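User: Second chain of the day. Same drill as before.
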Amino acid sequence: MKDDNYSENTTHNAHNTHEKEENSPVNKEEEYEQGKHPNSLKTLKKYQFTKGVSGNPLGARKTFNALKKNLCELADNKVENWNGEIVGTRKEQVLKRIWEDAQKGDMKKIQLLAWLGALD
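Assistant: Same format as last time:
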């Protein structure tokens, strides 16, 4: 009889212990949406920019509008060969050179022409 009471008390105590573990605040797991857990938000807070501070400390990317304008003006200048004969504009000479190099097997020039769709 003593053994029966002992086994009942043991299982009862084990059951109560299990219930306590489930309800304890340490083991309580709440479900949060992705990125909404308080610990995640606290960790991210120190990496966020303060209000009014730019996310890009170097500012906008530099533009080379003046250089582009000057190069475009020079591109239309006529080029003369060693005899003084006009052989075309600088832009035309560059384009001819790309095609000539590609015809000679320059893989970089061939890839450039293919990438630009000039070989289609």
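Residues 2-23 form the longest helix (22 residues).

User: Great, on to the next one.
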